[in-house]
């Protein structure tokens, strides 16, 4: 029989985030703002999808945090950003005005974040494998 782990309160994620290096906390809050800025473009169906994917990803990340704590595995919480990035890149040529500018910023932020996430999850899994 496996060992039972005490689940963490997902809301403690934010207090732990504030204890991370300043750059990490600033980056995470910037990602939150950029994703939620989709609400400014609420009349765009793609903006609704952006906010929905962000909220689903946030729930997934809180679940991962509850189980694993503030570990590199949290990058898995952004797995839904991979198909979102594809959709954003497909819609970008048809976008215009401020919404096009927003999509460019979002694509850059999500793309950069996914690079960090892949590295972090790879390091986490590699470290766990090496211990077992």
Features:
132 residues
In short:
The protein has five helices and no strands.
Structure, explained:
- It contains five helices and no strands.
- The protein is mainly α and 132 residues long.
- The chain has one domain.
- Helix 3 runs antiparallel to helix 4 and helix 4 packs antiparallel against helix 5.
- The chain is elongated and about 50 Å long.
- Span of the ends, CA to CA: 18 Å
- Number of individual domains: 1
Strand composition percent: under 5%
What order do the helices and strands follow?
A: HHHHH
* Rg (CA only): 16 Å
Main sheet: strands, sense, barrel:
none
For this entry, what is the oligomeric state of its chains?
single chain
Q: Which range best describes the helical content: under 10%, 10-25%, 25-40%, 40-55%, 55-70% or over 70%? A: 55-70%
Provide the structure class.
Answer: mainly alpha
